[in-house]
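Please decode residue identities from the backbone states below.
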């Protein structure tokens, strides 16, 4: 009886072990990455006035998916830096121009900035890409750049377009009010 019980337990444990996940680990141990495989631009991200850089790496069984994951991570890093800079600039605008925290002008400025960051982050450029095979997976290293000077120029254009649009709307409202007054005056 004991032999049957031991044999049953052994077979059951082998069955349970064989049911375990045998798929590839999509996040392999970082110790398996050779330092020779890591590009210098990942370890020493470039610096240039007017440009933000971010580097990242990602793994996948599919090279394109690994590339997209690394690019999205870079874009996310740049977006975080842009949001931080926007907050700083908005605070400086408040201090220097004297608008309060609940100022309509400050709100408008912040909204235009946020809209521009969302638009502009689609315009980042992949400067460098390095692909290695690692334990049956693709590891893709990506270096992304974002032209801050160009983004600032577009921000100024966007703010000017918003101002002109608001002036146009105000003009249309004024004209509508004037027509209404004229109709009322001549209908009497």
């Amino acid at each position: 009886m004991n032999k049957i019980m031991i044999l049953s337990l052994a077979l059951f444990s082998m069955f349970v072990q064989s049911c375990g996940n045998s798929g590839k680990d999509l996040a392999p141990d970082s110790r398996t990455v050779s330092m020779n495989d890591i590009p210098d631009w990942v370890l020493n991200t470039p610096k240039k006035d007017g440009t933000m850089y971010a580097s990242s790496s990602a793994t996948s069984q599919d090279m394109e998916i690994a590339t997209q994951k690394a690019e999205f991570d870079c874009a996310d890093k740049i977006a975080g830096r842009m949001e931080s800079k926007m907050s700083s600039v908005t605070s400086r605008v408040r201090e220097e121009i004297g608008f309060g925290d609940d100022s309509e002008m400050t709100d408008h400025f912040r909204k235009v900035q946020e809209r521009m960051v969302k638009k502009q982050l689609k315009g980042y450029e992949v400067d460098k890409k390095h692909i290695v095979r690692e334990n049956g997976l693709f590891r893709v290293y990506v270096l992304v750049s974002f032209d801050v000077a160009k983004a600032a120029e577009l921000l100024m254009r966007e703010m000017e377009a918003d101002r002109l649009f608001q002036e146009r709307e105000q003009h249309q409202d004024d004209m509508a009010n004037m027509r209404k007054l004229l109709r009322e005056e001549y209908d009497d």
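Observation: Strands lie at 51-60, 125-134, 137-147.
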